[in-house]
# Entry
Amino acid sequence: MNYNNGQNRINRGVILIRNKKTTLKEVAFTCQRPVSSVERVFEERSRSTMSGTSAFLKKSIKTEGFWKISINVNSKNEVQHLKVAGGVLRYNIEFNIPKFLSLSMDNQKIKMLNLVDQTLNKIFSDLYLDTEKLNGLKYFIRERQFESRFSGPISKHAGISAFVLCEQRFDQAEIFIIFKNGTKEIKRSSLLITSPEEFIFNVYLNKIQWISDKKLELLASNGEFFSINF
# Structure
């Protein structure tokens, strides 16, 4: 391990700002823009696995200078193999996406999980991070059945709570309206099925407005309007 003027630490080709401690919060696969149709599908099918990975690692990995790992897939840019910019660590890999998409859905899940586990182990090893922190990751994702859940603000009326819930799955995301009496779920209504990309389904995670005892309304951030019956 080398030091540069006592300010920067050099770890196997990546320069990290010394003493700028932060916590790893997010891991994601990214294809070079503009993406092809198959690259778009690959990215979408990585999202629930990466959401689960981020949840598994949350608050347990202390880093120097980055809060996110962006795994760049088949990047054509001639950039440093490990590069930190704007709090994001960028790591380049090559991966046969068409071959991956030719597999059955169950085998895609296995392949994706192995790819995430192997890549993160390599990154952690290169940066001298504790690889034991990755133990149990694959089990954690499988137990969640490759699903992650995101919810919007709670709206209460006459003792009933209502909120939007997104179930992010391997190949799609389903948006629900959840009704609870106390902690007990009393009704669940499916609103729509959309992409598992967080920036797409996140527009629906707004606060529901009660119009009456039996009627609610939801205005999504993209302008879509929904009328919901209780």
Q: What stands out?
A: Confidence is low (pLDDT under 50) at residues 1-19.
